[in-house]
Amino acid sequence: MRRRRKTKILATLGPASSTPQMIRALFEAGADVFRINMSHSSHAVLGELHHTVRSLEETVGRPIGILVDLQGPKIRLGTLPGGAREVRNGDRLKLVRKVSADDPADIPIPHAEVFAALQPGECILVDDGKIRFRIESSTREWAEAVVEAGGTLKDKKGVNLPDTILPIPAMTPKDRSDLEAALHLGVDWIALSFVQRPDDVAELKKVVGGRAGCLAKIEKPKAIEWLPDILDISDALMVARGDLGVELPIQDVPGKQKYITRAARKAGKPVVVATQMLESMITAPVPTRAEVTDVANAVFEGADAVMLSAESAAGQYPVEAVSMMDKIAMTVEGDPLYVSIIDAQRNEPEATTADAIMAAVHEVTKTIHARAIVSWTKSGSTALRAARERSDAPIIALTPTLEVSRRLSLVWGLHCVYTEDAQDLDDMVDRAARFAFQEGFAKPGERIVVTAGVPLRTPGATNMLRVAFVGPQKGE
């Protein structure tokens, strides 16, 4: 099944989309990768969804990616004495390190790590930023704060600390258990929540050990400060605009989204834009005009993938949401301005053979109007470099590694094909032409550009460019 767009769609599975019939409908509507959110999934549910997606993959004959999203550490209020409580601007409060406070005037936060890190002048946000405190003094047992934005405090509401680097591990015991379950099944991507610094991703990568791609969710201001180092160690990024929009001034989020997207593209690593993209489609069959524009802007910016969360996991119109995202992406990519905007963001190639080859591939493809770029890739690096150039021609990624074909399904412009490895250079070119024809990208007599690493089976050694004609096929 050939997609008519280059931007990929990542759809979250959940109560509204857990049956084999619905998952197939989402795939046929345009979903390329399926996300399983471990904040709402047991290991049994994870296993069932994984089995269903893999069965679908076998049926349709196309690699399908599976991303498991770890919950990450959740900081919440404790139990408020007397229930919900109103706080007003200018009120002075005492935050205490307890599950439940004895004094009705105290606000319990049962997390020792919060009090170990808090410093005067730092901000605490409660209930998705609706309520804001400013710390005046602190110890390891309590802190005094003034209310800067008041409202109704309720039990167990989420707490965000945008100014504070918390001394907590990147993964909770639950995350580690979920991670092992996911790796045992053989999922393709692991998303790490609430990344603060490069060490968080390094910890994940050490446990994963190359068994899956590691995606860092950028949802904290501190992660943006560390972005170059986080990007260097990660395999992919996600612009997680939910918590990012809580911890940053909300008007700053669009600019940060562009910064993160462009940094990832420059590094040649996939970037996903997520959160509230078609939020109104949770309960409505059509999105708002602003939501359509939001998705379109991510596509214009060259994001590898756009993501649906509750829209596909728990909404009333999951298939319609995927279909709408598919239509938006195809329409944008067909817009006369799209190619010029994407080209304007291209970076000068690094002074390496692989980068020089891929820059040449881009120019040759454009000059001779080649119908497709065919990249032979064992580790995925050749295909990633081809995708970074954002060529107007489709890219066929041929790989002898099934896991690589699934992982690359997240990447912009890649049509992934799992196939046995080429025997020699002639076989590589002949089969590239045959796949270009079989997959519907080129007709006999049309040209393609083939790229690979020689000697064969040498990961990361992209050093060959070849122009080939698609010859007559059997039956023609």
Q: How are the SSEs ordered, and which strands pair?
A:
Layout: E1 8-13, H1 20-29, E2 33-37, H2 43-60, E3 65-69, E4 85-87, E5 92-96, E6 106-108, H3 112-117, E7 123-126, E8 131-138, E9 142-149, E10 151-153, E11 159-160, H4 173-185, E12 189-192, H5 198-208, E13 213-218, H6 221-225, H7 227-233, E14 236-240, H8 241-247, H9 253-267, E15 271-274, H10 289-300, E16 305-308, H11 310-313, H12 318-333, H13 336-344, H14 353-368, E17 372-376, H15 381-388, E18 395-399, H16 402-407, E19 414-418, H17 425-438, E20 447-453, E21 462-469
Parallel strand pairs: 1-2, 1-16, 2-3, 3-12, 5-6, 12-13, 13-14, 14-15, 15-16, 17-18, 17-20, 18-19
Antiparallel strand pairs: 4-10, 5-9, 7-8, 7-11, 8-9, 20-21
Major sheet: size, sense and barrel closure? 8 strands, parallel, barrel
Helix content: 25-40%
Number of helices: 17
Low-confidence stretches: none
CATH fold call of the largest domain: TIM Barrel
- Assign the CATH class of the largest domain: Alpha Beta
Shape: elongated
Distance N to C terminus: 22 Å
Characterise this structure.
The structure is a single chain. This protein is of the alpha/beta class. The chain has three domains: 8-72 and 171-340, TIM Barrel; 85-160, M1 Pyruvate Kinase, Domain 3; 353-469, Pyruvate kinase, C-terminal domain (Pyruvate Kinase, Chain: A, domain 1, 3-Layer(aba) Sandwich). The chain has 17 helices and 21 strands. It has an eight-stranded parallel beta barrel, surrounded by eight helices. A six-stranded mixed beta sheet has the order 6-5-9-8-7-11, covered by helices on one side. Helix 7 (227-233) crosses helix 9 and helix 10 (289-300) packs across helix 12 (318-333). It is elongated.
